[in-house]
DNA sequence: ATGAAAGCGCTAACAG
DNA sequence: CTGTTAGCGCTTTCAT
């Protein structure tokens, strides 16, 4: 079913059909009607692909994600919400773990799509390595500080500060920090910075023993948590720089017979809604994931309209959601 | 950055570059190396669009959703998980509310994409109206019984039975049913059927007064719930055929001063993870949303491989998740 | 008002 | 082994 079928059926040339399709001038009213009729009758739809190959503009915003999991799904919801307010449509491109592990896959995918399938893109991929010169791009929460590409991130520094202040406010003095893996360049240090700032402000001495790097696998995480919790003078609270580590911490605590929240307070970061379902309910620093997706699309749309390029690096506020994992009785003095 | 730039830079014809790109026979090793080098150097990626326009096969599975919201997001997670196991990539196409409200938009979008952008599609859209003859398609939970297209749905009948049995087991005899809007052709009646079957099996007489249709807007929903709850001999329990209605019911009960679960048990259907966060925690019939997405992709892949077409209509089991909204003390006799 | 023709980036026959 | 050619479905001059 192509434009030629329509043309043949209507007894006109493809050029004429194309004009009708795009509401161009220079077609007799009667012809327009006839062609419209045939289109309706045949249920014809023009091919997005062929059209964009010609046009180099598609009315589509692309979102590139490494995979669709709880985190990116939240961002996608926000992006979809923002797109609703615009004339654009949304295409999510999920590499589905097929990115070879090689960094820079997003750049390659981007160039596969850009100019042809999407007018601009939102990148929800930890490592943004884009060769510029393609379409407008906005990165969401890049771990390796977006460089020259506009980004939307959450306020990691302040979030970590909130979390640590909360624990300090509960009376804790020995607070462990379970960090991100070293490869995560951007948000990890910011969160540790917030942690240390809070300590400093409260006049609590910094103990390097209480800071651990975490890791990627489950075992790495659990080992790190175990190390922290089996310290001679073990921490009475732990701030985990992402919620996977926080949950691992809670589990390790259980196996060690340490009661949460009775004998240990735990706060997580990097909240996806699912972590609210954790038992005991986890106190977390909540990132506005949906909002990040939404703002990213809004920025992209502004870019596409060539409006004032807006602030290139947006930081969205985080907030502390207190749940049972830091409930009294606590702390141990 | 096109194939011609590469060809020019490498001093060969585009045809040769194309051959290198696709690992075709008949290119001298030295030439292959040189072309590969140029490709690397220029960071060239072939255009997915141009390629698929030629090839009519893309290695991409499309998922069409009306919008990305909690429900479809769950399905997407499952689809993404399934795609990981395959050589395909995933493209989600979100109409973003732009579907005119006219039914059949999915068919139109499908034909815009099919044969060119996607090799097959999963439709996550209430009303599946596909003119066949395009690409292979699997529908997820279509409200209007998929007809000839293969579908993945959840076992609405059994789920409703479970919910009602649960309430009966609690001792309830006057159980209201807050149905889906009439337009929802498939799942609505199935859920009502399960409700009535359970009643019959328990020897509880069916009271038409206790069955209401619900509606689309918030007010419709609340009015329906209010009607049910202000009946002279009002129900002691309500089975709501989707979780939005269930939450509305809980809210209306509160405004009427009816304690949930003290004086009223509520069970919902159509669970998205978010409903676990409802206060009080909602007892729901949980649909395996992620699994549905996963199975849909698996079926589609089988279809694309032209394997045995498998069972065309898969029903996945639902399960009852009991939470506080049906906790004792209950029922009122 | 209409259509013939060129070409978007790419691939596949076919010649050379 | 390499290049020329035709054409995927569509839009757009430019003639007619």
Automatic annotation (TrEMBL), chains A, B:
Gene3D superfamilies: 3.40.50.2300, lambda repressor-like DNA-binding domains
Segments forming domain HTH lacI-type: 1-55
InterPro entries: HTH_LacI (IPR000843), LacI/GalR-like_sensor (IPR046335), Lambda_DNA-bd_dom_sf (IPR010982), Peripla_BP_I (IPR028082)
Keywords of this entry: DNA-binding, Transcription, Transcription regulation
Keyword presence, Cell inner membrane: no
Keyword Magnesium attributed: no
Pfam family, one: LacI
Listed name of the protein: LacI family DNA-binding transcriptional regulator
């Amino acid at each position: 079913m192509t434009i030629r079928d329509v043309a043949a059926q209507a007894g006109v040339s493809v050029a004429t059909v194309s004009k009708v399709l795009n509401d161009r001038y220079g077609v007799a009213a009667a012809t327009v009607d006839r062609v419209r009729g045939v289109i309706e009758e045949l249920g014809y739809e023009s091919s997005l692909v062929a059209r964009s190959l010609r046009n180099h503009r598609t009315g589509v915003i692309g979102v590139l994600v490494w995979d669709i999991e709880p985190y990116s799904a939240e961002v996608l919801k926000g992006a979809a919400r923002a797109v609703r307010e615009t004339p654009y449509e949304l295409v999510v491109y999920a590499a589905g773990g097929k990115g070879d592990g090689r960094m820079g896959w997003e750049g390659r995918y981007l160039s596969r799509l850009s100019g042809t399938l999407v007018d601009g893109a939102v990148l929800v991929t930890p490592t943004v390595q884009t060769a510029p010169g393609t379409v407008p791009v906005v990165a969401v929460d890049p771990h390796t500080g977006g460089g020259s590409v506009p980004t939307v991130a959450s306020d990691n520094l302040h979030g970590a500060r909130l979390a640590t202040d909360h624990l300090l406010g509960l009376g804790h003095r020995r607070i462990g920090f379970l960090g991100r893996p070293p490869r995560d360049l951007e948000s990890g240090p910011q969160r540790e910075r917030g942690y240390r700032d809070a300590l400093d402000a409260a006049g609590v001495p910094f103990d390097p023993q209480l800071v651990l790097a975490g890791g990627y696998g489950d075992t790495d995480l659990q080992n790190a948590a175990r190390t922290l919790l089996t310290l001679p003078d073990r921490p009475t609270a732990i701030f985990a720089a992402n919620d996977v580590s926080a949950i691992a911490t809670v589990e390790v605590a259980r196996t060690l017979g340490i009661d949460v929240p009775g004998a240990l307070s735990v706060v997580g970061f990097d909240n996806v809604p699912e972590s609210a379902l954790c038992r005991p309910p986890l106190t977390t620093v909540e990132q506005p994931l949906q909002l990040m997706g939404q703002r990213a699309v809004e920025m992209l749309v502004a870019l596409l309209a060539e409006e004032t390029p807006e602030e290139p690096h947006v930081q969205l506020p985080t907030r502390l959601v207190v749940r049972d994992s830091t409930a009294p009785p606590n702390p141990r003095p």
